Amino acid sequence: MPLFRTSAATSVGDLYALIRDKRELTRAEIGKLTGLSRTAVTARVRELTSRALVIEHERAPSTGGRPATLLRFNADAGVVLSAAVGGSRTRLGVCNLAGELLASADIDQGPGLGPADLMPEVVTRLDLLRAEAGYRGARVFGVGLSLPGTVDQARGSSVDTPVLSGWDGAPLIPYFRELADAPVVLGNDANVIALAEWRIGAGRGFDDLLVIKASTGLGAGIIAGGALQRGAIRAAGEFGHNKTAAADARPCRCGNIGCLETIAGGWALVRELREEGRPVHNLRDVVELAHAGDALARRVIRESGRHVGEVLAAAVNLLNPAALVVAGDVAGAYDIFVAGLRETLYGNATALATRGLEVVPAHLGERGGVVGSALMVLDHVLGAQAIDALVTPS
């Protein structure tokens, strides 16, 4: 989706958004797109080039004469750091200002780790990752942190994260103070994956998109009308806690009973296989067993898809997405999971809502969380208002 709309291109920030979106333009092209005078364009460009946010280079002329000067978005002006915290693993990343992943690492974690246990390691490993990748001296524009649940950016904490016991209300931003003097932006895990898949992945080109993350827990990111929908209290997409008759009043980790996650979430699948003597610790282990031909593992993954499809049918009717993207650890067994999902989704949603619906695997795979967290930060620190604040004397 474009980061820029021509009708609003008047400020330095608006012009930067245009260059960031198009990647490179000439001054003449900027004038045509914005209606700004040559003098106004030059003044705004000067603000950006002086901060190395935009760089200039000459383009070879096609028919002789003086070559035009191109203004190029400088993706290497700095980096953003990102961490995607999950129920069994945390992924770390260093990205450039285009959201391209430069380096990544994982932290495999046991169940029940609180923020005081995990967050210091996240910060230490991010610092090491930045150094090992050769970006110790690079400017850090921001840090993105995604969590499996609802987050409160103002408080800098999670609000309702059943997957992570003991995290709700704990301040997380202070952990990053010694790592970088930069904004820390929190987001929901499914939302950041949706942002990444929409911008550069399987959902590119769609303005109405439903991205589901099926891992330890279940969640969805909703793109509607060309915008990420977070909801009134940022709790949109928590379909894993929809009640379903098939759950038969089973207790859920959220404190309620009868939630979809109790029969379709990764933690429930792991529990079922362990009760049958399988040595599994997380959904990735279940997927590995399924690929090895284990009949029970294949069955529970397909049944998970059936339960998810049944609940998502109502969302498809309500939102009418053009595509449904399957992400998360279950995507490792995409064909098995989606065989079940299609069965109930198409059986319960209306024929009209599913007529053109595309069900596709996530393109970014395990990178989705860290890339999406980086894009979330970049929208915050490189948005038009942020750039205008940067260039305006206080």
Notable characteristics:
about 400 residues, Nucleotidyltransferase, domain 5, ROK, ROK family protein, ATPase_NBD, Arc Repressor Mutant, subunit A, alpha/beta, 3 domains, WH-like_DNA-bd_sf
- Shape assignment: globular
Q: In what range is the share of β-strand residues?
A: 15-25%
Which topology of the largest domain does CATH recognise? Nucleotidyltransferase, domain 5
- The whole-angstrom Rg is 23 Å
- Major sheet, described briefly? 5 strands, mixed
Give the count of helical stretches. 13
Instruction: Give the termini separation.
Output: 32 Å
The tally of strands reads: 15
Q: From the helix content, strand content and strand pairing, which structural class follows?
A: alpha/beta
Fraction in helix: 25-40%
Please, what is the average pLDDT? 93
CATH architecture of the largest domain: 2-Layer Sandwich
Lateral strand order in the biggest sheet: 6-5-4-7-10
pLDDT < 50 stretches: none
Query: What is the CATH class of the largest domain?
Result: Alpha Beta
